[in-house]
Write a structure and sequence with these properties.
By secondary structure, the chain is α/β, with parallel strands linked by helices. It is built from four helices and four strands, in the order E-H-E-H-E-H-E-H. The chain has a four-stranded parallel beta sheet with strand order 2-1-3-4. Helix 1 links the parallel strand 1 and strand 2.
């Protein structure tokens, strides 16, 4: 399949948001490349670098997230932190580094979570709201957000 400009990549394309975004982007005449856990190991920097050396997307939407079931063993927080870190932080670093190396014109969107903020009863939250993550998911989502800020500020 030959991809025409503009190209958008959706990381986490099989989820509800990914499917809806893909539909919208196609309406806007984008070529869409969907990535999920079966198409690319985003935790492997070599695989990610190779992928982005071939495809120079206009936009990347990072919607991937590691969620766990409430029925999982709560005493396995080390496993939860590790898996959450792999997806919310390490994979983000891998993609941003590949973009710096191969596609610096690309725009990157990182889907975070309201869980990174303090609980604010009825108050509007903005980018200036204080971070106060209280779960492994929220802590690693906060770290992913900070990684994005670092790359934006230091790598343009």
């Amino acid at each position: 399949m030959k991809l025409a400009d503009p190209i958008a990549i959706i990381v986490g394309s099989k989820g509800q948001d990914g499917r809806l975004l893909e539909e919208k982007l196609k309406e806007l005449h984008y070529s869409v490349v969907g990535l999920d856990r079966n198409t690319l190991d985003i935790t492997n920097p070599g695989d990610v670098d190779e992928f982005f050396s071939d495809i120079k997307p206009k936009e990347i939407y990072f919607l991937a997230a590691y969620h766990h079931s409430a029925q999982e063993d709560p005493n396995k927080e080390n496993k939860l932190f590790a898996k959450s870190f792999d997806i919310h932080v390490l994979a983000v670093v891998n993609i941003l580094e590949a973009l710096v190396n191969h596609s610096s014109h690309s725009r990157f969107f990182y889907a975070s979570s309201c869980l990174v903020f303090d609980v604010v009863d009825g108050k509007v939250q903005t980018e200036l709201t204080r971070y106060n993550p209280e779960t492994p998911y929220a802590i690693t989502k906060t770290a992913g957000t900070l990684v994005c800020q670092y790359y934006r500020n230091s790598k343009n």
